[in-house]
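To: structure subgroup
Subject: Chain for Friday's discussion

All,

I'm putting the inputs and outputs inline so they're searchable in the archive.
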Amino acid sequence: MNNQYEEAREWFDANWPYCTQLDIDWTCRRYEYPYYIVDWIKNDTTNWRKINDENGGTYQYFARMNKKNAIAKYDEARRWYDVNWPGKRLGKLSNWTGLILLDIDWSCRGYEYPEYIVEWIKNDTTNWRKINDNNGGTYEYFARMN
């Protein structure tokens, strides 16, 4: 990525942390965005999508929206897991290791976890750590263990 684009993203994240859509004339010009920010918005297609030509162009910061959607999806998965497996959440699993462990093939498939829960377990590294590849992968739920 262009270093100037990285600086622009950092500026935007610091100054407009919740903005996911804007237009050039009303928002950028009115609030006196630096020119390199406007250039980034107009030209960085890995983060921004032009929606229409109104007010100098309306742009959607889809990279931020995708991140928020993933966070919301993971929050929903965490709530499901906490309701359906509260003992595991609390660290009261009756195995001798004291760890909260599960594997994909036996635990998730055997107990018919919804697919979005399996996706969360495999991909949310803030809550799960892959231990090995046995039985589709063995994962430790480490985030809530104290």
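Points worth raising on Friday:
The chain has seven helices and six strands.
The CA atoms of residues 77 and 117 lie 5 Å apart.

D.
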